[in-house]
């Protein structure tokens, strides 16, 4: 059967790519976004692989499937995914989605509600082109949790939920500098494996699949800190990672170091910056607000020739027989 082409629009948010699938994806009917994400994962994994994996994609590519929303008053629904699976939430991807919808003429400046698998979020497209995303309720579950890592000794980190599960390390591991990418990747990958082996998880046994290392900013007049974020598929985030910055805000708030109205400027490994502020909820959780910029930089139609062995991407577990 000939498969319908996919129409995709590319952007990057402070360096991190987002590829929004505008049309050609499967019809998943009227369901919650969490159910649609499960269906995408279980029944249409070809779409994720075709969009994010080589030859069309690369390890850092984050895809976003534009869907009909389930919740009322939302301009759209979205499911994010990467080189290995679906993502619960993605703030850089939401900023990319918003500028993509503006490029398509579907939205203008103002606040837009967006339905996601982990809840409804809101994003404001500002007159200057920047976007502020109001994330899901976020919180720290534990502080300075030790994990033994071969070659590094005992590493300590905070655990936080901010739409994804994070383990946040400060002052340990390789220096957060672009020239240390390989060392940072090896260190954070080892930490992630050990968290899994030692049964250290988020709530309800959920895997901690994002590891974040913090260091001082290169230029304190531009940022308050600089991070390296390891994403689930072993790629590093080129942006400061919106959910990672939200997790940082949750930890700062829990430690009494950030109050509503104060701004945290989080630089990435590329020294691009997100600005973060918080709202306090009555139960002590926070709503992080993360702002940054994105630019549309490409548009493609993907064709699926049945004779092309890699029309659905080169699988990450590819083996040569
Ligand atoms: O910006 O939230 C984010 C994100 C998650 C994974 C990559 N970017």
Note poorly predicted spans. Answer: none
Radius of gyration, rounded?
Answer: 19 Å
Mean pLDDT: 97
SS class: alpha+beta
Q: What small molecules accompany the polymer chains?
A: pyrrole-2-carboxylate
Number of helices: 5
Task: Compute the number of strand runs.
Answer: 17
Distance between the termini: 26 Å
Keywords for this structure?
321 residues, alpha+beta, 17-stranded mixed beta sheet, 5 helices, globular, binds pyrrole-2-carboxylate
Can you walk through the features of this model?
- By secondary structure, this protein is α+β, with helices and mostly antiparallel strands.
- 19% of the residues lie in helices and 36% in strands.
- It has helices spanning 33-43, 45-52, 91-103, 181-197, 242-254; strands at residues 6-13, 16-23, 62-67, 76-81, 86-87, 110-116, 119-125, 131-134, 139-149, 153-161, 165-170, 210-215, 225-230, 264-267, 273-280, 286-292, 294-302.
- Helix 4 links the parallel strand 11 (165-170) and strand 12.
- The model has no long low-confidence stretch (mean pLDDT 97).
- Bound molecules: pyrrole-2-carboxylate (PYC).
- Pyrrole-2-carboxylate is lined by residues 16, 62, 87, 90-92, 231, 237, 239, 241-243.
